Amino acid sequence: MEEETSYLTLVFSDEDSRVYIFAVLVAFLLTAAYQTSVFFYFKSEEIIGKYDVPSWDVSFESIDLSEEETQIIADGTTSSYFLEIDDSMIMENSYVGFLNVVVSYEETSDNFADPCDFVSVNLRPEGILAQWDNESNSLSGSSDQCSDILLFVQIYPSFDQSNVTVVSETIDDALDYWSNETYGKGELNLEVEVNTQQRVEGLPTQQDTDEAVTVNWRLTTFVPTAKQLDN
Ligand SMILES: [Ca+2]
Asked: Would the pTM of this model clear 0.85, i.e. be above it?
């Protein structure tokens, strides 16, 4: 202890040594300060950068298009209803989301106590690009109670009218997924079969030979917009 103290005293008592130690100390502190500032400056930029990709709230303005057609379908026959979906029908910057179909009929024979006919419908899974395997789809149905038959087809993937959050660099990237105009374009074919039912079979005055069936196509299209969210 004595020796060390005397050694240090010796070192610090020497002018050159003091200058040298001071210079080394300053150099060390400057280097440390520089490295620390570099770390915090550039690393923090990098860390912030990772969370700097903006989030977008994508919302959809829905526009429903409706077309209706009524046909008189003879007993025991099948008739097709067609829906043509093309650019003239779909507004610019809008896309085809999904389709609802309502098939309706009533008993129109005027025969006394004539029961409702049997109507069955089948939407052929072809003609347009759609999510034909979607589990929400309802492509066929029937009724013998004069009740409406409801069908549904998911056309644009994942579209259900609710907002989605997208992380992307630009607004165009955020809207890119929601800007595919190939979905839903083409022609759909709904087959409708009628089998009449009558109260008394074979009685000429009670003949029920056909039925009027109305098909209402309700196509939901959408215009997507994106708004940047505060991170
Ligand atoms: Ca009938």
From this structure: no
